[in-house]
Structures are given as structure tokens and as C-alpha cells.
Amino acid sequence: MKRETDFLVIGSGIAGLRAAIGLSQSGNVVVLTKDKLGESNTEYAQGGVAVALSDDDQINLHFQDTIEAGAGLCDESAVRVLVEQGPQYIKELIEWGTEFDTENGELVFTKEAAHSRRRILHAHGDSTGREIVRSMLARARQAKNIEMLSHATTLSIIVQDERAVGVCYIDSETKQSSRIYARATILATGGAGQLYAHTTNPDVATGDGISMAYLAGAAVCDMEFVQFHPTALNIPNAPRFLISEAVRGEGGRLVNSQGQKFMANYDQREELAPRDIVSRAIVAEMLKTDAPYVYLDLTHLSASFIRQRFPKIFATCLKYNCDITKDLIPVSPAAHYVMGGVRTDTEGRTSLPGLYAAGEVTSTGVHGANRLASNSLLEGLVFGARAAITALNESLNLPEIREAGRELQTENWQINQQVRSEISNLMWLYAGIKRSKDGLEKALTKLNDIASQPINQTTKNMITVAKLIVQAALFRTESRGGHFREDYPQRDDKTWHCHSLQKLGHEISILELA
Ligand code: FAD
Ligand code: SIN
User: Fold this and answer.
1) Among 133, 147, 214, 512, which residue is least crowded by beta carbons within 10 Å?
2) Looking at the whole model, is its pTM more than 0.85?
């Protein structure tokens, strides 16, 4: 089946929804999304959105904190756009009905690691993402020319005369394969946490957009930088549910399995040190005490405060017999966010004409080597809006699209679960929190073995992203932010003050900072 529309958006998280709402002012928009509409990383966001809106905050301080967290690799122009335009887009979100938490009619701001001010807006305590998705879906539904197709898994981008002209997708319920053509396509497929055996990300986060863009010829950047969240719940048979950084922001303490506080031994910022430092400290304590987790301790905080401030975390832990007002919470790190992705400029353009991108799927240069907590919802919002404006402006007077692309194999199109586990175990073991040349080479050999078997497009997409991470991690012979090499434990600004760049048919290379 094939059809045409004006604009295509792939993904219905914060970036995709904001882009679709923007595009709907000038044409028909089709949003394709892999699962049900609300299923995305955005939906599960807990801590909140960082934005310099409080009386004691300044845009410049948000800028400095973001640059500091990025460990030398942020593109300053992109960070400027984020922090300067963030407030206007957050105010717009509030006008659209997003209910951030308030006290006496004033917005309340919380603190998270590496922020010099209380600047994180949150909603319903720890259900910020769900509230944002609710209000944005309501807004998108008001626009009569946005059509949202759920259970539509995009598998590849159609390229004609070196321009993206549409996508191939499969309806996972009817198993029907379709092509859809558009004047502009905005990729907003989110992250790739599911490439790792332990992750806070939902099932849909397999990095498809990065692979599709790369295989279509777009440049990909900084794939070695993966953020591991220090505190995911670690209880047998429970999901790796996130225990928000805001919990430490409100005073939660980390103790090892022998009940000893340890963060001061690793960093003077203690529990509020950057995530990579806290994650490695936890791994070191787990090894030292021969325990599969450490604990997060909130028992010194008032029980009513905990229940009111973190209702979702309280209820979820209770389901697994952990009453966080009285019990220590077993936690360990899990893959959380990929800083790298499809390279875009600050207007949302990828290097492939006709293809725009926004949100976690991208590498805008905003996060550098390590994302500052709660900056990604803001990034999705600001750059989703900007990508829509660019796509609108650049999609007038285009040559006619001829029929292109091929029907997809519809039988056995999903990844085999055994192969999926094999990939995610390899990635956790060899391309995780600590890496080395030997381990990364082992991972690459095994990924190449899997890729050499007859595989479907879904498997190919997952392996492609895994290989991009492993190859970039092998390339960068230093440690910085979310990339730690045991064989190169120091930061090396002389050689590596640059991005890594991967493009189909080219050797991996460096890209100077913008
Ligand atoms: P997503 O919200 O992940 O949306 C991606 C969309 O693309 C989904 O709809 C998905 O189904 C769809 N999709 C994927 N592949 C395909 C395909 N092949 N075809 C069609 N559709 C596809 N960040 C913060 O700033 N603050 C927080 O408090 C915070 N908390 C977090 C808590 C958790 C548990 C997690 C996992 C992440 C958190 N983050 C937080 C990170 C943040 O949520 C994400 O980076 C951000 O929401 C990404 O938005 P996005 O729109 O780019 O992608
Ligand atoms: C959290 O609530 O700890 C997640 C915040 C983020 O990933 O930005």
C-alpha cells in the first residue's frame, strides 16, 4: 500500500508531538508511532524539565551547568538555543494545559545533580512525562489535520535523488507493509536504551531512527556517549524502574550493602555528582562489597513528604514489598540515555535533505559527552518546534516525488527474542559502564557474526546501532563523560576535544566542535 501526505513525523514522544503540532499549521501531518500513542521515553520521565524560570535563576547559569556537565564536548551555539528558547516553549506548554506542580499558585522547582540552582519543573510529583504527553496529545487531537497511526513501526527511509521522500513501515497489528511519501520527514524516534540488558527505557527504545538515518546516508555523531542512570530499582522479578535523581536532590543518600555512606570518597559533590561518576562509584562499591546493588536511603525524610513528592516511586516500590518510607531501596545503574545520534544543526536539519530530526534520536551538540539531568525533555520540546519550522520553510517548490522504495517482508519482521537478548547482553558486558579494547573487539566480532546470518530489517536496525556504539567506543581512546575506557582512563583534550562522526561508506572520523 502507498500514500502521500505533506509532512511525516516518526515518533510520538515530546519531540514528535511538538513537531507535529507545529507542522499542522501548514499542511497535513501523519505521525507514525511504534506502539500505542503514549508509549515513549517521554511518558516515563520522572524528575522533570530543567528551565531557567525561577526568580533566583538565570539563563546563563543554565548554560554554564549544561556546558560543565557536557565534559568539554557541548556545541555552545546549540546550548544557547536550548537555554534561551526553553522558557518560551515551556510557557507555551503551560498555556496548552500542562499542569506543572505549584505551591500557593507559584511553580515549584526541584534540584538535581550538577544544577547550580533549583530549576526542575515537575508534574504530579514524579509523573512529569505522563502529564506532558497527556497535554500534548490533547493539543495534537485538536488539530484536525494531524493523523496519528499507532502500532506503525517504521523500518526504513526512502531516498530518491539523494533526498528523503518517505518511509516504509509495517502495521504490527495487521502485519501490512506500507510506503508513505512526504515533502519532509521528521525523525523523533527517541533513544536506544533497549540495546542494553539493563535499562530504564521502555521496549520501544531500540534506536531504530539512528539506524534508519545512517543507512539512508545521514551522518551520525558521538555514539560512544551513553548515559547510565545510577539508580534503577534492582529487585528480582521487578522491572528496572527508575528511582529519580530528584530523590537524591531532595536528600536521598546512597549507602553500600554494609550500610556505609560512600559518595564522599568519590566526589565532593557526593550524591549530586554527575551521573557517570555516581554510576562508577556504585559499581566500585558493588564490587568491593560483593553485592549486586547498593541502597538508596530516604528513611530520614518525613514519610508524608515522600508519599506526596514521589507518589509513583512510592507506589511502584511498594508493589515489590519495599516501603521507601521505612526500607532501603536496592538500586544499581542501568542504561538510560544516548547522547549521540543523528547529527543535526540547530534548526533540526540532518545531513540528508528532506530529513529533519529532533529529540533523543539526535546529536544536536547540546549534551556533549554527558547530559545534564532533565535537559532532554527541554531539548525535545525546543528542537521539535525548530525542526518543524525548518521543514515547513524548506518544503515548498520541491520536485515531484516519483514512486520509489520497495515493499517489506511482512513475515517474521520482528526481531527474534533470542537474538535481541544476545545483543543486549553483549552490549551490557562489553560496551557498558566500563569498556576496553579487548571487550569492544569481542562485541564487534559477535555483532558481525550475527549480522552475517540472514536477518530481517528490524534485526539489522538494532545491530547497526549496536555496531555504531561499539565502533565509536573503540575509536575514542580516552575517557570522558558517558564513555569510560579502562585502558585509557584519562581525559585527553589534546587529541579528543572533538566529536566522532560516522557515515555509511566512510571510515569513522572526527568532527570539530561547532
Ligand atoms: P521518546 O519520548 O522516546 O519518543 C520516541 C517515539 O518514537 C515513541 O513514540 C516510540 O514509540 C517511537 N518510535 C521508536 N521507534 C520507532 C519506529 N521504528 N517507528 C515508529 N515509531 C517509533 N528526561 C528529562 O529531561 N527529565 C526527566 O525527568 C527524565 N526522566 C526519564 C525517566 C525515564 C524512565 C526515562 C527512560 C527517560 C527519562 N528522561 C528524562 C529522558 C527523556 O524522557 C527522553 O530523552 C525524552 O523523553 C525523549 O523524547 P523523544 O521525543 O526524543 O523520544
Ligand atoms: C530522573 O528523574 O532521574 C531522570 C531525569 C533525567 O533523565 O533527566
Assistant:
1) 512
2) yes
